[in-house]
Specification:
Length: about 400
């Protein structure tokens, strides 16, 4: 893979064939192949960025009826908006930083590294450097050296130091302009997202999440750090929704909506892809029953063509008074070994109200989100005649957290 040319199609086919059966490769060969492929990918990315810049300068995309290279990359190559923007940005940057561009072209620098410079040193920064008599060629050489020999973080630090020194007394950036949040919902209803925050905003979010992470550390917790943080984010949203202090939208307080047929609600079994949620996600009947334990329920009778015929009175399953009584009795999550505080917990029906269970203190238990889920998936909690809570595994065995008190 030496030289400046990108692999030809036959050469690339041969390389793909070589890695079809990985079992014949030694560990050293596997790592060498990864290193060579990464280098080749960098070189291909460099050619793509140059082509994008040429297409921009020559307005080549107009032949396909589009106005910008970015829109062409999104529409024709099905790239994300962020990736298309990066290709265009990097293509512009290598014109101004030829040494970095040369290292990019020979594969020793990645597109992500070039973008560290491209996204921080744009037209405004280059103009400021020219006014101050700063020779950017010096920094081009320095940044290329850092990119080739040091970590990605080191390059970020070096470029940021240049930007800060360029205008040390400049206007403090508006934190709003530094914030972005994108959320994507997938076909199965799961959600992924990305956010970028300024230093102060990020500190606020981390502080809020960490307070929940550190407060929710039950004995035997096997969750990873990233799982605990994700649980903390959901808990933060749950508490805000429960507190009722969020802005009212069109006369209705924000709330999670789940729609499910009454037959599916009262039936046994998981019932996959049975209920629908407000933002379009589909969940199982079992998950809907879990949410319905402590919820507001509205009855809507639908006609044969999907037209609502009757809307019954909204009914709060667990009244504020009942919750106060259950909290006074249980105080914390009653699942063995937990003890999460009551303000994290739902009121769980030991016998679900959809199956005829009473909405009463005797048929209720406080359970945090994690253990409420466990109980709806085979675990069981019960209160013995002496008033002590017992927790049983799906196989019927009891979870013992200390010496049993008979």
């Amino acid at each position: 893979m030496s030289g400046s040319a990108v692999l030809t199609a036959p050469e690339l086919d041969l390389l793909v064939d070589q890695v079809e059966d990985l079992h014949h490769l030694s560990s050293v060969q596997v790592l060498d192949q990864m290193r060579e492929l990464a280098t080749e990918r960098n070189r291909v990315d460099a050619v793509l960025a140059r082509l994008a810049r040429h297409a921009e300068l020559t307005q080549a995309v107009e032949v396909d009826g589009l106005m910008s290279v970015r829109s062409w990359l999104i529409g024709h190559l099905r790239l994300s908006g962020a990736e298309a923007s990066r290709i265009v940005r990097v293509g512009r940057a290598v014109e101004h930083f030829p040494q970095l561009g040369a290292a990019f072209a020979d594969g020793s620098v990645s597109a992500a590294q070039v973008d560290v410079v491209a996204s921080a040193v744009g037209d405004r920064e280059r103009a400021a450097a020219q006014l101050q008599g700063i020779d950017l060629a010096v920094f081009d050489r320095a940044w290329t050296e850092v990119a080739v020999t040091s970590s990605h973080r080191a390059l970020v630090t070096a470029v940021q130091a240049f930007v800060e020194a360029l205008d040390p007394d400049g206007v403090e950036p508006d934190p709003v302009q530094q914030r972005a949040l994108s959320i994507s919902t997938h076909a199965d209803g799961t959600v992924t997202g990305r956010f970028d925050l300024d230093a102060v905003g990020g500190e606020k979010v981390k502080t809020a999440l960490e307070s929940i992470v550190q407060a929710d550390r039950p004995e035997g917790d096997l969750r990873t750090r990233v799982q605990r943080q994700a649980d903390a984010l959901v808990a933060l949203a749950d508490r805000q929704l429960s507190a009722g202090g969020l802005p009212v939208l069109r006369s209705v307080k924000p709330h999670v909506v789940v729609t499910i047929g009454v037959e599916d609600l009262v039936a046994d079994g998981t019932g996959p892809a049975t209920a629908s949620m407000g933002f379009g996600a589909t969940i199982s009947a079992a998950r809907a029953r879990w949410l319905a334990c402590d919820a507001t329920v509205s009855r809507i009778v639908m006609g044969p063509e999907g037209t609502p015929l009757d809307v019954g009175r909204t009914h709060r399953v667990v009244t504020p008074g009942l919750r106060r009584a259950v909290v006074a009795r249980d105080q914390t999550c009653v699942f063995a070994g937990c003890g999460a505080p009551h303000h994290w917990a739902d009121v769980h029906h030991l016998v679900h109200w959809a199956h005829g269970g009473e909405t009463s203190p005797a048929n209720s238990a406080l359970l945090c989100e994690r253990h409420h889920t466990k109980v709806h998936h085979g675990f069981r909690v019960e209160r013995d005649p002496g008033g002590r809570w017992r927790t049983h595994r799906p196989d019927g065995t009891e979870i013992i957290t200390g010496p049993r008190i008979e």
